[in-house]
Amino acid sequence: MLRPLPLTALAFTPFGVVIQHPGEVGQTINAGSAQRFDLVRDLQLHQAQGRAVLALFRAQARSFPQALTTLERHALGSQSFVPLGARRFVIVVAPAGAAPRAEDLRAFITDGAQGVVLAPGVWHHALLAVDAGDFAVIERTADAVDCEEITLPQPVLLSLRPEAG
């Protein structure tokens, strides 16, 4: 049984970057009416003639426990998920490299205001929305598709309930 941990920048470092308010003062812009925070300086989307695309995903809330049967990765670029409004989601990841085993999987649950940038090559499950709604997705697009999918040898059950005792 896979159970998600709260998403933190430190715990997520091997898989990418957490998108959230950095907790510091930003650069003052727009005649003092706003602050700018540069969260990710390079989304790594231009390899092999790629370019950035901003998409809107309208996600249905998933039922949990959820049986996970497939994973995917994008070797040539990152993929970012940012909730539009307070929308929690679970991100299931495994390190870049060879096809992962069940014991390689890690799960994190967002607080509803966090997003993530998955590093190129990181294995991940498709969007697992806890709360239905819209998500901005920033990813690489090009003539050649950059999405490799695998089927797990055995389904992995993802539960949102904490372990008993």
Q: What does it look like?
A:
The chain has 165 residues and is mainly beta. The chain has a single domain (5-158), classed as Ureidoglycolate hydrolase (Jelly Rolls). Helix content is 2%, strand content 44%. The chain is built from one helix and 14 strands. It has one helix at residues 9-12, and strands at 5-6, 16-19, 27-29, 34-36, 51-59, 66-73, 79-83, 89-94, 106-109, 115-118, 123-124, 128-129, 133-141, 148-158. Strand 3 and strand 4 form a beta hairpin.
Strand elements, count:
14
Radius of gyration: 16 Å
Assigned CATH architecture: Sandwich
CATH superfamily: Ureidoglycolate hydrolase
Report the biggest beta sheet as strand number plus sense, adding barrel if it closes: 5 strands, mixed
- The general outline is globular
Number of domains: 1
Regarding CATH, which class?
Mainly Beta
Helix content: under 10%
Number of helices: 1
CATH fold category name: Jelly Rolls
Short description:
The protein is mostly beta strands. Helix content is 2%, strand content 44%. The protein has one domain (5-158): Ureidoglycolate hydrolase (Jelly Rolls, Sandwich), CATH 2.60.120.480.
Notable traits:
5-stranded antiparallel sheet, globular, 1 helix, 2% helix, 165 residues, Jelly Rolls, mainly beta, 5-stranded mixed sheet
Please write out the topology.
Layout: E1 5-6, H1 9-12, E2 16-19, E3 27-29, E4 34-36, E5 51-59, E6 66-73, E7 79-83, E8 89-94, E9 106-109, E10 115-118, E11 123-124, E12 128-129, E13 133-141, E14 148-158
Parallel strand pairs: 1-9
Antiparallel strand pairs: 2-10, 3-4, 5-13, 6-14, 7-10, 7-13, 8-9, 8-11, 8-12
